[in-house]
Amino acid sequence: MTELIRTEGLKKTYGDSMKKVEVLKGIGLTINRGETVAIVGASGVGKSTFLNLLGGLDRPTSGEVYYDGKPVFKHDDRKLAAFRNSTIGFVFQFHHLLPEFTALENVVLPALIGGAGFDEASKRAGALLTEVGLKDRLNHKPGELSGGEQQRTAIVRALMRSPSVILADEPTGNLDSRTGEEVFDILLEQNRSRGMTMIIVTHNERLAARLTRRLRMVDGDIIEE
């Protein structure tokens, strides 16, 4: 397996000198291409903060994240946004679908932002939605979909640009246990069929045990389990 992501001395601090909170305390970590990684730990220890830094959604106080050996935070904001769009797929606890758009329209957006034509993007979006069992729901808006269907749509949106990695923050946290299992199965199938790297923050220890590697966050650092 080859290295995909590496962090060096990754720190994140909030506040000022009068009241400073050090959330991440210099994390060094390597994640290889094709791995499935669970990040577990108590609430408030910095799991989501760490995931946001891996995804370039926030900048560290110090340290760096490397993808394929190239530093992420050397980019300005515009180039960083383009990097995120082409390289990383995000799945959150809440689906964040645009309510006025259909499932298909929500899914094509990342491709359109990346410069793809609408016809080409729609064809790919339709195929991916069909793959996850939503063939008959393409033209339904989020309010007309169940919670599991909404999250499957969000997963497909994350897959649209064929990213190198999927970063998922509590992707089953808002679902009942059976639907959560189904969503987790879809994520793992993407790893098996496409070799896609998965990094998943979860409180669900049973689901975390299904991944190939488990990291526990404690006191601003990561411990390999």
Describe this structure in words.
- The chain has 225 residues and is of the alpha/beta class.
- It has a domain at 3-96 and 163-224: P-loop containing nucleotide triphosphate hydrolases (Rossmann fold).
- The protein is built from seven helices and ten strands.
- The protein has helices at 47-54, 77-87, 103-113, 118-131, 147-159, 177-194, 205-208, and strands at residues 3-15, 20-32, 36-40, 62-67, 70-71, 88-91, 165-169, 197-201, 213-218, 221-224.
- The protein has a six-stranded mixed sheet with strand order 6-7-8-3-9-10, sandwiched between helices. Strands 2-1-4-5 form a four-stranded antiparallel sheet, with helices on one face.
- The longest helix is centred in the last third of the chain and has 18 residues, at 177-194.
- It is globular and about 55 Å long.
Task: Looking at this protein, list some descriptive labels.
Rossmann fold, globular, 35% helix, 10 strands
Structural class: alpha/beta
| Sequence of secondary-structure elements | EEEHEEHEHHHEHEHEE
Low-pLDDT stretches are none
- Annotated CATH topology of the domain at 3-96 and 163-224: Rossmann fold
